[in-house]
Write a structure and sequence with these properties.
CATH topology of chain A: Rossmann fold
Order of helices and strands of chain A: EEEHEHEHEHEEEEHEEH
Oligomer: heterodimer
Number of helices of chain A: 6
CATH architecture of the largest domain in chain B: 3-Layer(aba) Sandwich
CATH class of the largest domain in chain B: Alpha Beta
Structural class of chain A: alpha/beta
Bound molecules: flavin-adenine dinucleotide, adenosine monophosphate
Number of helices of chain B: 7
Structural class of chain B: alpha/beta
Distance between the termini of chain A: 56 Å
Radius of gyration of chain A: 22 Å
Largest interface: A-B, 85 and 80 residues
CATH architecture of chain A: 3-Layer(aba) Sandwich
Largest sheet of chain B: 9 strands, mixed
Amino acid sequence: MKLVVLAKPVPDPAAAAERLGPDDRLDRSAAPNVINGNDEYTLEAALQIADAHPGEVEITLVAMAPANGAETLRKGLAMGATRGLLITDPALAGSDAWSTARVLATALKDVEYDLILAGFDTSDGVAGVVGPAVATLLKLPYLSSAAKIEPDLAAGTVRVRRISPTGFDVLEAPMPALIVGTQLLGTPRYPSLKGIMGARSKEVALRSVTDLGLATAGDGAVGGAAARTTVTAKRTPPARGAARVVRGPAADAAKEIAAFLAERRLI
Amino acid sequence: MAAADGAAAGSPGVWVVAETNADGSLAKSSGELATLARSLSEAGAGQAAGVLVAADAGAAAQELATYLPRVVAISDAGLAGHAWGQPAAARIAAALADEPPGTILAGAGPDGRDVAGTLLAILDGAVLVNATAVAWADGAASVEMGVFGGKLITTSTFAHAGWKIVTVRPNAVTASAAASAGVVETRAGGGEPGVPLVKVIDRLAESGAAVSIDDARVIVAGGRGIGGPEGFALVQDLADRLGGAVGATRAAVDAGWIPYAQQIGSAARSSRSCRSAPESRSGRRPARWRMDANPVSSGMLTSHHNP
Ligand SMILES: Cc1cc2nc3c(=O)[nH]c(=O)nc-3n(C[C@H](O)[C@H](O)[C@H](O)COP(=O)(O)OP(=O)(O)OC[C@H]3O[C@@H](n4cnc5c(N)ncnc54)[C@H](O)[C@@H]3O)c2cc1C
Ligand SMILES: Nc1ncnc2c1ncn2[C@@H]1O[C@H](COP(=O)(O)O)[C@@H](O)[C@H]1O
């Protein structure tokens, strides 16, 4: 079985150094890059499928990112993915969500897969639309908000537990399919020392826009110059009010809180 | 794709993609989107209209028409047993095929994103995401969003002649009905998704999710300090009295005290997480209170409020 995990390199949110550069684009040099958190959950799900079917599963990590994205993908290879594919091209800097979906979908036409896994959203762009857009461009059924992924190789189908407002829906579709995963898929594993050593010799294939047969100007163009959205202004929000902690015997504390809420017309 | 034949089809409008609750009623967030669409229409965005796709769109479409002059209702019984996003988006795209490309407002929750992403690809459109405020300026939507976990607020606009999609966070505006109800146009299907449909083979309920934290203006959240599952009865009581929803921290959810649907700030709910709480101009962010009944602070109530 062949699995693809869409893994976006993002500035490490733990560094809390995310910022826009003078061109109003994400300053990708401000913080070290990591694989987007939600994409690590889907990678973990893919690795668990591989663990359950030893020797039968290949996992390809696919990213569209600057050239140093290859280093970021190494962590995923160290966790156990088989290989990487990086679409990198200076013309892609500044891509919007539409371009990103178009580029990823085009690159995936040359990749064999039974399942494509995407994250619920990213920690930088937070759009949550690239998964469904890629599925649509590839004409794949789309199973979203997955808390559990169960492929049935013999039947050629996949079942997903989708988080609903009241619990879970159990979804089923034929493979190939695209699944969007969530944190409930399970905590991502740490790479083992052996995994880290092994990752060095794993392949990360590189593709440019030209390799994909896409254009960066004219009709249907992708990349920064063709971005369909633009930032017109930015400002820092007013500082958050500090949390107010009320201490004291319950009856007094309750009165104080009620007064506080009433004063703000919240009750 | 979806060529603009504006002259023949009238002026571009602003379209609301409406969602329904499990009982078939209109989702609260859709009333908000409809109210927003009306205000954009008044500011020059063209006619405000809604499109609602459901197994039985009837009642919710009537409800939507209390907010909007025009509602396209598409009932498709086949949707009952299938995941909604892809077939709904295909039907919406078909309904919009004769319209000049305008602006589409969708929810920023899981279902809204499913449809927005699918429409983005079908309509060859552009998208601005997680809007906390939307205005009309220089002939296009001007969208405010909090980025980097709310550390920065950006204003963005479109540079695109085709369909322009905006996903809007809950509580960005307060829903209010129009002076008079609009017209509902009923349509049957149209627009095949062109992909195998995803079947819903079971629905598993988890108790305790009476009021959804998606839509709540008030969330009373408990964490590990609440001491155990029984502590949430206290949280529930307060939430009931405030007309709010019960939320929980990841630790409480991981401990199995309360269903995942109640978790604030989780991966599947980043659109309403604490980290990226909407920083709306109007200061209408949901209020949150954290109740802490751990033995150390027993008898205390901790109030945490994001003003
Ligand atoms: C602060 C900020 C705000 C932005 N706002 C917008 C906006 O409103 N509209 C817009 O069109 N663009 C926007 N962008 C640009 C957008 O982030 C990028 O185009 C990005 O590549 C796709 O959006 P996302 O990261 O939000 O993806 P999401 O839709 O959140 O991604 C979902 C999943 O798709 C996969 N995926 C997404 N991108 C990649 C990738 N490059 N490589 C591999 N897998 C990937 C991952 O599995 C990911 O978990 C914004 C960027 C920033 C930094
Ligand atoms: N040089 C590049 N090659 C390929 N993709 C890139 C490059 N630079 C940025 N991207 C991607 O384009 C999108 C927008 O990036 P940015 O403008 O840096 O926010 C993200 O998906 C990036 O991963």
